[in-house]
Write a structure and sequence with these properties.
Blueprint: E1 2-10, E2 13-18, E3 21-29, H1 32-42, E4 46-51, H2 52-57, H3 63-72, E5 76-80, H4 86-94, E6 99-102, H5 104-108, H6 110-120, E7 125-132, E8 135-138, E9 143-148, H7 149-155, E10 162-167, H8 179-188, E11 193-197, H9 203-212, E12 216-219, H10 221-224, H11 230-236
Parallel strand pairs: 1-4, 1-12, 4-5, 5-6, 6-7, 7-10, 10-11, 11-12
Antiparallel strand pairs: 1-2, 2-3, 7-8, 8-9
Helix pairs in contact: 1-3
């Protein structure tokens, strides 16, 4: 299983939100590029880079930091936040991202997102589902959609390769990952590469996700607050 640290960008800083609430924001460093270097030095190979300003505004806001991280490190970066057009997909890829993560647009305009998958390849597009009680939320987790995560997956039947699923209630709360939901997704859609996000607080949580067959797990706050170290992850030899 792949372990993916997260860097969430807001105002050029590395931050973390609690349950997606912009008013409950913790700032961890003013230097996201330096943080990316530290992850790389520790042996990390992949980074989840989230443009929170872009998510809130509906337009990519931190293309410069994406470009800098990609040019100054060897990290494979997946980038998300505010992507609404094919032009922005191209910009993100040209800036060096290896994957583009699509959230709200995947829900509101599946036809357009399917065309991006066809053009750029299913291996480079990640569909993001941010959920509360299996219901998908969009626009920076601010608006509940009329679909469940299972409805969303069915919309992309035959073209979906990568799914990133975040349990909003658990994100940044150290309450443990949503193992029940991830187990259900693995059983129903074993062919999809499932990226779990939200709630991871310990080595035991990571092991539990590994036993479920989760492909990758994103870890943010647990790294920043010292509850989990990369050395511990390496010793697990997953």
């Amino acid at each position: 299983m792949e372990i993916i640290p997260a860097i969430d960008l807001m105002g050029g800083r590395c931050v973390r939100l609690s349950q997606g609430d912009y008013d409950r924001c913790s700032v961890y460093t003013e230097d996201p590029v330096g943080m990316a270097h530290r992850f790389e030095k520790a042996g990390v190979e992949r980074l989840h880079l989230v443009d929170l300003d872009g998510t809130r505004k509906g337009k990519v806001a931190h293309l410069d930091l994406l470009r800098e991280i990609c040019s100054l490190t060897r990290l494979g970066v997946d980038f998300s936040g505010g992507i609404k057009s094919e032009g922005e997909v191209q910009q993100v890829l040209e800036a060096g991202a290896r994957w583009v993560t699509i959230g709200s647009m995947a829900q509101t305009n599946p036809g357009k997102v399917k065309s991006w998958i066809t053009k750029y390849g299913a291996e480079r597009i990640i569909i993001a589902a941010d959920v509360r009680e299996e219901r998908v939320y969009i626009n920076g987790w601010q608006r509940k959609s009329d679909k469940t995560v299972f409805d969303l997956i069915e919309q992309y039947d035959g073209v979906l390769m990568n799914l990133m699923c975040t349990d909003i209630e658990r994100d940044g709360m150290f309450s443990g990952p949503s193992s029940g939901l991830y187990g259900k997704l693995r059983t129903m859609y074993p062919e999809i590469k499932l990226i779990a996000s939200g709630g991871v607080r310990s080595v035991e949580d990571v092991k539990a996700l590994y036993r479920l067959g989760v492909t990758s797990v994103i870890i943010g706050k647990a790294f920043y607050e010292g509850r989990l170290t990369w050395e511990e992850i390496v010793r697990m030899k997953l």
